[in-house]
Hints:
The structure holds three protein chains of three kinds. Chain A is an alpha/beta fold. Chain A is built from eight helices and ten strands.
Amino acid sequence: MWDMPKIWVFRGLKKGILTTAYPKSQPTSEEVPTASLPPRPTDAVDWSAGERGCPTGAIDSGGKRVDLGRCVYCRLCSSAGFTFDDGSGSRAGALQAGLTGRHAAGARRIFGRSLHVMMIDVGSCNACNLEVLNLSNPYYDLSRLGIAFTNSPKHADALIVVGALNPAMVDALKMTYESMPEPKLVLSVGACAISGGIFRSAEGFVSPVGDAIPVDVVVPGCPPSPVQILEGLLLAAGRLKETGAMR
Amino acid sequence: MERLGEKMQLSSVFQAGGLNYALISDTETNKTIISELPLTLSEEFGALLRGSGAKPGSPLVLEASGRVEGYGVFEFPYGPVSWGVPEAGAFSLMTYGERVLKVVPRLNFKKRGIERAVLGRTPEDALLFVERSAGNFSAAYSTCFAAAVEDSLGLEVPSEARWTRAVALELERIHNHLYVFGRLAEAASQNIAATQAHALRERVLRLNSRHFGHRYLFGINSIGGVSRGLPKDERRTLTTEVRLIGREFSELVQYFLSSRIFLDRLQGTAKLTRKDALGLGTVGPSARGSGVQWDDRLTFPLEPYEDIYVNLETEDGEDTMARTMVRVKEVESSTIALRELLDRMPSDGTKSGPHRRRADSLGAGFSFCRVESPSGDLIQAVQLDGGGRVGSLHVRPPSLVNWLPFARSLEGTVFTDFQFAFESFGLSFADSDR
Amino acid sequence: MIPAYLISGLLFGTLALFGAGFALGLFAKKAAYVLGGVGSALGVALSLIALTSGRTVSIDLWLVNSTSHAQLQVSSLNAYFLLISSLVWLGTCLYSVRYDDDYPNSLSSLLLLTILSMVIVLVSGDAFTFLIGWESMTIASFFMILEGKGDKEGVRNAAYLFLAFGEGSSVLIMLSFAGLFSAAGTFSFMGPAARVVTPLGPWIFVTALLGFGLKMGLAPFHMSEWLPIAHSSAPSNASALLSSTLTLMGVYGIIDVVSHLGGYQLWWGWLALTVGGVSALLGALFSSVSEHSKGLPAYSTIENNGMIVVAIGVYLIATYYRLTFLADFALVAALFHAFSHSVSKASLFLLNGWMSKLRGTFDLTSANPVPAGGVRGVGAIGIFTALSLAAVPPLAGFVSEWMILEALFQSFRFGDLASQILGALVGAVVALAAGIMVVTMTKVYGFGILWPKRIAAPGEKGGGYIEGGLAYFAALIVAVGVAAPGVFYLASQAASRMLGANPYGLFVTGLLGVPAPFVILSGSPFGGFSPTFTALAFLSILMVTLAVAGAVRARPPRFGLRVRRTPGWFAGAALADDSSAMYNSFGYSTPIRVMLRFLFRTKESVVQVGPVQRTVIRSPEEYVVDLEVLDVFKKFYDVLAKWALGLSAYTSRKVMPGKLGLYIVYIMAALVFVLTYILLTAG
């Protein structure tokens, strides 16, 4: 019996295209899973119970708002009346990356067509790292957008910082930032990087990343899904309006 | 005790209620032995097993062998910021060029201090910390912690909850093994193999998210049960999905096994002898690749594992190929186990009733649990205080004890073998630093 | 017309100055070097006059036998070699004025005696004068090596090794000359003479190739590594002399003997190609893994001499097939390469000698710092030397290596398949050797000059002499490259004695808008190259780059356009300040040691010494004077060594009282005996 020669290339071609349509269209509910949706107050919400139950202090009953930078998406607040998924499956408005306000004008002219990204881990649980790495798998395929990973800050345009800033990594983070050529972008990815997340009371947490180096874009999540990180990158490169639509 | 290191492994050392305990694995009888600490340990080894180690910010340096000197020998520092190892951790490689003479892992670049952070918290709160110790082993961590606490509290956890946890554990095992496989393919520049493995892994992650609500299985456990059970129809679709993924993976393995250049890169690379594997306390697929017969699912079975069939996969190759084949076979046996788990899962509820033990008896003893995480044996020992809060927590992560075997296996290899050894041991700095 | 008395006057003047320097050196070394420098300048003038005029001048000294005079003669061929040597000596003398400070007066005296002997070798018109020059050259060099610093035992062994191989070479050369004598009927065969076609031809050629090749360190004698050991043990100015001009005498000898022979056979060319190709490759490989700052250039000498012999091989085969164009080109290529190698190599020895003196060690791996005052300017000057030996255009080394490779790549013109295949094979080997030299020169420049840490401590200074000597060589290297057509003219003038006519006009022309005489052609039709215009192109690119950089820096700081200095990237860690955390030159070449372990016979082992593990990695290139050789030849040398040991044990018991002086007398006596024997049997 003649056996088909096992050639990787043919197998690769046979599998077809898996890649997401984002950012040409809104992401699907597979790409932004329920667990990545932020808590939303309903009419029957009990703000003070929410604040008491929240392990990271993300819920502010005085201002009646939820600080997504602190939220670890644990859903303990569902008992206080917060909802997460409206059940429609639509992910319009589900993306949450935001600018910090120090983002330079003209980013689109400089980074719009080519963006080299480096990731630095300053004390994460590894989940954010894995989600960043996932951006290069066939489902998200970063390179189709002209974005590439690099492993030296000397080649990097953008720095993705993940994890709760550890005392052992403060110097390394600053050194990495210093080594990047200007102009440069910094993305603070995940609750730990933005606010310390669940670890904000732990001994191994120094400060939010934004206190150590200037941050341009924050991507909330625990961990944010790859599409949400991608949104952050596009936003940093000036390729998205803040509403999440392609510019 | 003189047999320690040959047939018996000293797996962990911890303090509870003011006493020192040693946790010993007898690889001959497959028994876990707990005894009051009978032996004096070298400071370094003791610190390693005790896991308490240093405070955040101070480094933990592990040396598997003595100082190396000689003509032209220099230290090649690697990390803590690198892309080859996408985590914060560093190595010192002693070399005279090309040849790796000694590897010294430098840990604690990301020590968050989980064990101290949970003190005085309710077990439910502590669970949020524990499951974020190592994102890729989250289910193992939370299951281990929950089981230990439930034991302390004397909770009757319904079988369905336990079986659901096992499903999560197996799914976690599959996505981690696929990750290792993909990373090995990347290291060998087998780009199509790598993207296929990562695509398959993405499917498992989406499966996690669809059925458990989180891609990395955060928040699936609660004390006394699981947050969300698997209804009958979901069990059926999950079975189908797992079967498809298993079939696709078998195809991938067929291609892998006929790809000479890929295999060449793994065979004979970074050997870890069985003697070293036992002596250095290696756990998980790395130990089983060197012929050590230990798998917590069989040797320390929690509830569903007594009832279902799990094969103990070992290899005798002692090299990267053997470790990879253990993982490959475990993916296959996990898919089989998953089908059995989903098929025979009882439906008796996902939450336990209130605990029966009186509060004043809580602070007396301690409970421990061992769970086979994707990279091996995870041990946690919990002691609750009188108020039902966490009085002490001891974690012995699998990666922590695998650093020294990893360093030993690299001695005498060349630089390009580093990535293969690192990935095949499935090491994670987040796991070992906690 | 240049009068003959001008040439002979200059010759005697040169000899007298070197002789006076030799005598004066015992009392005042700096004055001796000045005399040596003036003598070298006279030598340059003499050889340039003789070369451009094309005159041959012979001076008969006395009658040896009925057919032979002891005579001195100056012709285009030896004038060319005298030109190269004099240029090297001039720079070496300048450098030595400062470098010699730590050595006794005798070194300057011996250095000038060696130079004097080399002049005699070059201008001898008969076998006897040649051999007298050759022997005194060897003996003077022997004593010069004994002056070397460092491990006394090692230096002594190195000197005796040099002497033994030097005498071996002498014996083979005498055998060759005996053959020439019986064919030509006279001892006055040096210099321009009719070619002889004789059944003894193979004998003469092979003994000459082996004898002179031995002196050049060629395969298979490279196995004993006598040349790197001997050349690296000597004081650095002596090393420069030994490795560039002493081996140049070997090149001269081979070319001169070949010029007296007619009726070349095909296999002579094959032999030369093989010997040359193997020498080039092994020389390059061993050079690349050497950690000795002077052993490394010594191996590179073997590589370059191999290339020269390869070019001679192409010349022989092309002549056999009457491929005049190719034969002419190959011979000129050999001569050109002798020029560029000699100046570059002397420069590298002097450079490394100075750096080693500042570092206090010859070990490239050492982490010793250097005083900043002593190295100021040395790096900028030294880059030309390293680039030339790495064959980077448009410097001297590139032009000649390009010529040799172009000659080899035309081996398809040969008349038989075997020669074609051999030519292509050797072409690949030589190209590989040239490639390895890039790695090697990167290493020697990187770790020898750039790498040592500069410290502000007061220390040795070059005092202008060191820097001057090195700058002189750098200028020479650039000049030989950029003004390659001029050197080409001189080399073809030298070759004209063998070729019958000066082939300059055939090869140097204009092409594609580059005006004549700035293009060198390598065949008709084959390749072409203009070193001068390449240099101009490089220069203009450099100017444009500098202008742009200057313009950018001059602008007011704006978004993205300002110079910001950050520390080097070290994977997020701070750069450790101690030497153990540093990459070193040993690590740089260990991949080659490990990959080619079968060739280097690399042994790796780890020994547990208490809590410390000691690693041992050795390959024969390390400088312990034990005659480690390749497997194939090891047996042969072992047997030879056993015999030699037995014989010397016997003689030392029975004949020799063990005094060094007496031993030298023995050698001289043996030489006289052999010469007399030849005279008697021939007479």
